[in-house]
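Page 42, continued from yesterday. The earlier attempt failed because a stray header line got pasted into the input along with the sequence. Redoing it now with the clean sequence only.
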Amino acid sequence: MTNLSFGQSLFDISLIHDINIDFYDSNWDHKLDSLAALSGGTGSGTGRILADVTINGTVLDSCGVRYKGNSSQDPNNVKNPFNIDLNYVIPEQEYQGEDKIKLANCFTDPSMVREALTYELANHYMDCPRASFVRLSILNVYIGIYTNTESVDNEFLDEHFGSSDNPFFKCDPISFDIFGDNSNLAYHADTMAYDTLYDMKSLYGLEELRDFTWQLEFNSANIDQYLDVDKALWFLALSSALVHNDGYTAFAHNFYFYKMDNGLWSVILWDVNMSFAGLLWNGTNIFPLGETDMQTQDPFIHGTAVDFRPLIGRLLSIPKYKRMYTAHFKTFMEENINNDYFLQRAQFMADLIDTDRQAELFNEYTYQEFQDNITTNVGSGWGLRLGLEPLMSARETYIYSLAEFQANQPTITNETTSPVQPELYTMVTFNCDVTDADQVFLYYRHDEFDAFLIEEMFDDGAHNDGAAGDGQFGVDVTVLGSDVQYYYYADNANAGKFSPVRAAYEYHVLVPKRNLVVNEISSKNSTIAQDLEGDYDDWVEIYNNSSDPIDLGGYFLSDKSGNLLKWAFPSYTLMPDEYFIVWCDSQMTQAGVHANFKLNGGGEGIFLSDNLGFLLDGTEFPQQYNDITYGRLPNGDGPFNYLVPTFGMQNDALAGEEEESVKLIDYKVYPNPAKDVLYISMTDANNETIKIFDLQGKEVLRHIADGNQVATLDISELKKGTYVIHIPNMKSKKIVIL
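This time it went through. Structure tokens are written below.
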């Protein structure tokens, strides 16, 4: 068996990572300054210089290095920000899947935690980069603590949006105008105007971007057909809550914009080192804003500025979107500010880097200012940096004094589906009890990267909703060939409410019953099983999860979601609880059942469909390992996980659960058995999503670790029984709830 060892993530915020840059050139600093000067600041597009880079003990040869940033980069500074290309010379060279390392020098931030803290909080509500701390040395000489931010590149887009070849822009103009449009998403008749106002990262997209801005200006009532409105509202709400003016608010820059396969554009947060009022400017003031100005900055700032800041002005001019924005804003405040969670995390980060920060020789602030800035203001005039605690404490008081934040929100309870586990391609009724609402909506989709569809729910006695006017709302929806991801939204004239409150980033999942399933996958079969020719080839196990015989004739298997009818099953009657092996080796002439494709051990998809092209089951599987399979546990119904191989038999053991040679990241679960409260202790808890499944494979609880090494889960609503805990890249474990 192969030893599976997943090291600490490069974006694990609970520790400091080590990076050393060994430049090949003795005059490396002069060369980097020259490259930066050629491009007016960053050196982007003008080349890099070579260096060997060591990350946490791993040496990466012939990397390309340049400075990054605009105002944060200065030829007179020793501590400048870096952009490192790991595969600059050596193709596909990477570290933990990352081929770009972006190191920010905590410019103008005495606390040194603003950027890492903002990204950590934002990751609970939107698709955005992760961040961690790095101890940087150059030629083995310590330079200082840096923020390591995940690159928004093709890999990021593929992971979060399922594609990376559509129009994609970094929203930063070539020539910055302090009072101008910059990258504000305003419409321009001349397509080439966008070429100077935006940095196009894709091969095409100027016309598509112009079309979007036209829709935003002239067709904003239907903007949900062109923009992922919920992502945009979360982006704006978090930016406003944390007084992150050095983004869209003041300068209309420092964000990314990507057009997804579903046709909607998505806003992506970027460059947040000046959040928590790091920029004393809101886009209109001439003199620096003071402490009170920042604490009481209007959460609806630019809400009517449809020309100056159209993304804010156009969206917030629509009452429903303004109520949604306010609901998101309140959720963020309640989960992070009102309870001082942000302060706890800020102090944790400051304590983590304290010793290394004290050893810095090239920081623009004193060590005492670093220690003070979480609770105390530092500097004055344009150099004023508000203490995080006094800023947000006063801001909380101000925000909740506003009428929009005092309005009564609807309540959403007793959410049910009927049946609980529907058959594929059948009707299911969604119900919930709602008070104080004029309208209730169900948002749902069948794929992670689809746009959510919207159905209004009714309390009229005609939509499987009980009696008219009883407060129970209902709507019927047809379940297709996959899980249903869904959430509810209700509003009245003054306020809105989501369930779950972090929607649409978080959502409920309805898992339909699957009669015929992909049960186990082996794409790196070294010793597990041989086909009739004696070869150790890839294989897929199909399982009859029903109580009736199923004729496989008319079903199809494929490794391409765009070609579901790639390979047809032979006619064979698969009995209940019986398994069927398909060898995926493209050896169609060999004895046995062989598909016309192979599996990719680096990860791809496997899809089961019927002759009408309806998807019945399948999964996108990650990187695989020798003689470790990827399958469902519990057998037939459970989520996919790394397994001890059970060729043609019931899946019954997680990889690492019974074999010492297989080592996924471990963690502690206690008490077990448990009642009411469960604790999960992890060494790497960087916003991991903890999921709990029952033995029928239904997800019954989801929890975000929030960076805490000990996650506390409320299990008081779960029924007695045995459950499975699933955490990405970690062992799955069984627990008993009393």
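Notes: The longest strand covers residues 58-67.
Reminder to self: strip header lines before submitting.
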